[in-house]
Amino acid sequence: MHLRHPAIKPGLYAITDSDLLPGGMLVPAVEAAVRGGAVMVQYRDKDGSSALRLNQARALQSVCANAGIPLIINDDGELARRVGAAGVHLGQTDGSPEAARRLLGDDAIIGVTCHADLELARQAAASGANYLAFGRFFPSVTKPDAPPASTDVLADARQFDRPVVAIGGVSLENGGLLIDAGADLLAVVGGLFATSEIETRARTFSQLFERARFESESHRQSGFTP
Fold first, then answer.
1. How many domains is the chain built from?
2. Pairing status of strand 164-167 against strand 185-188
3. Which of the four, 95, 180, 191, 219, has the lowest number of CB atoms within 10 Å?
4. Class of residue 49 by CB neighbours under 10 A (exposed 0-12, middle 13-18, buried 19+)
């Protein structure tokens, strides 16, 4: 079992939304995000029928497999198993990481929502989560009622030796701040998909990580520790 899963790379984590991407818009939008550099995709649809969700998840699994990146299914381990997705993302009321691991196997990616709570993160890590998601950090249309989080939690979560995901109101304007604070991945919904220029937006998000890597390498070579 890989707790620091080799398939999880730093970068843009694209999360779909059925309101933003109805019907036939979903697959082309995700394809555009992947072309723009998304390193992981989460399929999130709370309201669709079982048949619709199965068909859409299968289509997205094909897109992600062709691109060599993981598809994560929100909340539904059984759907992840049926379509051969890389793993599942669990909220605090969506079952345990241990149960998801038994269903999906040792190589699956299990992500857990931890809000702004380091104790929840500690429990998730101890239960075998592969990444820890924190937020919301900024006002969010997708998660308007989620409790606010301070960026300090991103640095504090490094103690758990898992990739750290920032979610909630993430934009091009604030994404760099979250990366500097310790986020390994930016989970973006509206900031990515609420535009007709998805590929361009994804590429610009990806450039935030390239800039951060360049600055980190420059500091390392100069012996400067920020």
1. 1
2. parallel
3. 219
4. exposed
CATH number at residue 136: 3.20.20.70
* Structure-block tokens of residue 7: 């398939």
Distance from C-alpha of 148 to C-alpha of 70, rounded to nearest angstrom: 28
Q: What is the three-class DSSP state of 20?
A: coil
**Two structure tokens written together for 110:** 């299990």
Position 5 in a domain: no
Cα→Cα distances 226→137, 206, 211, Å: 23, 22, 15
Q: What are the start-end ranges of the E strands in 82-149?
A: 87-90, 109-113, 131-134
Q: What is the pLDDT of residues 51-91, one digit of tens each?
A: 999 999 999 999 999 999 999 999 999 999 999 999 999 99
Domain containing 161 equals 11-222
Residue for token pair 């897109």: 63
* pLDDT recorded at residue 221: 65
The span from the CA of 144 to the CA of 123, in Å, is 25
> What sign has the CA pseudo-torsion 116, 122, 124, 125?
positive
Q: What letters, b where the CB count within 10 A reaches 16 and e where it falls short, cover 140-172? A: bebeeebeebebebbebbeebebbbbbbbbbee
The alpha carbon of 106 is separated from its chain's Cα centroid by a whole number of angstroms, namely 20
pLDDT band at 1; cut points 50, 70, 90:
very low
CB atoms under 10 Å from CB of 220, counted, come to 10
